[in-house]
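We now fix the convention by which a protein and its fold are recorded. Here is one such record, which you should read through line by line:

>
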Amino acid sequence: MTKGKVERLVRDWQKRLKLDHWDVKVDWSRSPREDCYATTFRRNQYDIAELCFDSEYKTWASDFTEKLIVHELLHLLTRDLDRVVNDLEEVMHLETFRLLDKRYEHEIEGVVDRLASCFVEAVNG
């Protein structure tokens, strides 16, 4: 896998997912969050995002890379829903919010992961 191939896949899937209005950049100088292959950093007010990939991207299989890219792009669609959950922190008891936030993060990751697999399999057969 090359940087150019990763960036082409990002653009291709951005169009397929109807996210072409987003300004998405691949930031090769920034590392993803710990224990992640990739991370999407989104702006809250504008449709701007950076995708960061682990330095091991060169060793990834095409199918894995494609599912990972789709997974990260789908997080753009969850931005406003994520903000709703984050806004609850101001009105909830701290321990209750922590429980909700932990559960929400687990569930949203699962949904995004399953959708990414379905989309890639539908396109690639």
